[in-house]
Amino acid sequence: MRYCKGVQKIEVFEDDLIIKSGADGVTNVEEIIWLKEKLLEISKKWKGKKWAYIADISKLEIVPTEVSSELIKLHVEIFKNGCVCVGFVEPEKAFISRQAAVHNRMSNTGLQEGHFNSFDDAFSWAKEIIS
Asked: Which residues contact 37 (CB under 8 A, 6 or more apart)?
């Protein structure tokens, strides 16, 4: 299944209990709220099971403070709803990587975090964690 809103795109790997999102360009608060709500909606089908979230941030631009605040909330909510790890795909943007790590730390959830050069690497890592 695939979903889109603005620059945000979601792909669901049902059999693997993995959700991937990606954004190309500048995202905003409205899109992040939509992303969070869609992640929670999708993961409700997996209630009681561990699942993983992979965010391809390789084409995402630096986000402003108000978007950062929503991303922190996203981390909190997905953790509360069974997500055990978040993998970031970021082959070229080190600053975005640092920003993503800060969002996860500030969520204070304990989500396992990984940073990868490719989606395939992130996917393999996530499958291992949730198995």
From this structure: none
- Six-digit token pair at 63? 């986000």
Residue-averaged pLDDT of the chain: 90
pLDDT at 103: 63
Between CA 89 and CA 29, with CA 104 as vertex, the angle to 5 degrees is: 85
Whether residue 104 is predicted with pLDDT greater than 70 in this model: the reply is no
Query: Residue 27: CB partners within 8 Å, gap ≥ 6?
Result: 6, 7, 8, 60, 61, 63, 67
Q: What share of the chain is helix, strand, coil (3-state, %, to 5)?
A: 50, 25, 25
The more confident residue out of 38 and 91 is: 38
- Rounded to whole angstroms, the maximal C-alpha distance in the chain is 36
